[in-house]
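Name: Peptidase B
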Amino acid sequence: MNEFGSCFDVDRAQDARTLHTVREDRFDEWKNGLSPRHRAAVDAAAFDGKPGSLVILPGQEADGWTVAIGVEGRPELSAWALAGAAQKLAPGTYRLEDGDPGEAALGWALGQYRFDRYMSDSPAPEPRVLLHPEDGTVEPVLRQADAQALVRDLVNTPAEDMGPAELEAAVRTEAEAHGAAVTVVTGDALLTQNFPTIHAVGRAASAERAPRLIELNWGEENAPVLTLVGKGVCFDTGGLDVKGAAGMRLMKKDMGGAAHALALARLVMQAKLPVRLRLLIPAVENSVSGNALRPGDVVKTRSGLSVEVHNTDAEGRLVLCDALAYACERDTDLIVDFATLTGAARVALGPDLPALFTDDEEVAGQIDREGHACDDPVWRLPLWQPYQRLLHSDIADLANAGTSSFAGAIVAALYLSRFVLDGRSWVHFDTFAWMPTSRPGRPKGGEALGLRATFRMLVDRYGTVRT
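Structure predicted for Peptidase B:
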């Protein structure tokens, strides 16, 4: 568990080392203004102001050194501007020369993130404290850092310790913290309560890892309903269309959509947004056994549509379709789902950009603007209706996978759209939920992508009543 509160302190003019930020496009101007002694230190370190680089500038006394940090050439600091420094600097207390860190407080905190649950000898690092004015600007960013860390922790946890029951426990923890109600439909009760595709995907797992639909409700009954849906496939073997070893290696992260939805629910409840929050997580393990779902099977979904299973490894859309149909049974102002759904989205956009699908132009524009403003970008792909033909089945209303390898992310999103009632405002994220290589503030492993952009959109849409 990462506690980021110790990363910050109110500035009361206490002793602290100064952090100078150096814009890359003004590096020469900055260097020319240095003393000969400091210019020599810059040259010796080959410091050139590149973002993320730093150099120690000696003081008159041995312990009087300060730090210069290279940042992007824009007036405000990016979210990740201080992340590299937070990872490299010695423990201590630091003060930005230019004052309040703003969004960069996020990177300062997340640069100190560690996932050390399984380390036999991993002492917690001493906190690096960044001073800031007492004006409340860091607190919202700190909550977002905590939410980002929640996603990382859940995704990084191996499937043995993060099955459907453990995912349910994580939801209950958040519910208890914020006074929300949780209901769960588990095992064969999914059939009697009409969640057949969730049951079909998860029925091959052991009884201890039985499939379930987890539902959290919070907020005033008469407020606009905001429904968050997260794909909670806690491990994905591919089913009888079994994955190879390389494809299965990271499948502990296939519940990354659920982690995003839960973290977003936490942010909504912390901010006390005036909504009736509804969180739906279909939690399953896609396993192999004698009763596993077979290629060619036809499943009747909650909406009444029948689905032919072309591929048991296209299971995420199966568990989501029942959850989305259930979401639409209530008058809902907005539905947002997160899912680690397709490799095709990663081929198109790489690991950093989650694919965004929606027909709501206003919401799409808000998320795009907020994503760029807070360094949490997304990229919109089209719900191209002519590709509905790729979901054709000869024996059922539709198939769960396309008949070709083209446009896989679009086809998957179109499949989900068949279960969202006309007129509903719906947003679908196809996210990787993972950093394949480490970057400042973003270590290799689980990662939240599009989370902060979406939360800021929700604040714009609904306003906040937090006190």
